[in-house]
Amino acid sequence: MKRTFIVILEIALLVVILRSSFVQYWLGDMQDSLSDWMTEIASMAERQKLNELQERVRPHISAMNDYQKDYVMDILSSRTKLEHFQRYYCIEQDKNPYVYGATLLYLCSEINKVSFD
């Protein structure tokens, strides 16, 4: 009987402590940090592939104007922008005002080589 009472008292005390605002804030902060850390680890391989693609493309766009280089590097900065560019300008062959001709063909071939698993 005494043990049961002590266990119930300990559980009630634990519930009261865990429901306090300080503990809620601390656990929430820890969850946010852990979530950010896991997101960073998950996107590490993607960023590495994008950086490699940027390094391969950089010498081939050196003759372009600055605004064209900025446009291409912006495209190569994220997976969603890259997929958008590939869908509209490589697959559907829509007209791009910044990149065209041999440069567009080269970019499309390099983008096709990259695979995000």
Describe this structure as you would to a colleague:
By secondary structure, this protein is mainly alpha-helical. The protein folds into two domains: about 1-40; about 45-115. It has six helices and no strands. It has helices at about 1-20, 20-40, 45-55, 65-75, 80-90, 100-115. Helix 5 (about 80-90) packs across helix 6 (about 100-115). The protein is rod-shaped. The model has no long low-confidence stretch (mean pLDDT about 90). Keywords: Membrane, Transmembrane, Transmembrane helix.
What are the salient characteristics of this protein?
117 residues; mainly alpha; 2 domains; 6 helices; 76% helix; membrane; transmembrane helix; transmembrane
Shape: rod-shaped
* N- and C-termini, Cα separation: 58 Å
Helix share, percent: over 70%
What's the pLDDT, averaged over the residues?
Answer: 88
Decide which structural class fits the backbone. Answer: mainly alpha
Number of DSSP-assigned strands: 0
Quick one: biggest sheet? none
- Note poorly predicted spans: none
Radius of gyration: 26 Å
Proportion in β-strands: under 5%
Keywords: Membrane, Transmembrane, Transmembrane helix
Transmembrane segments: 7-27
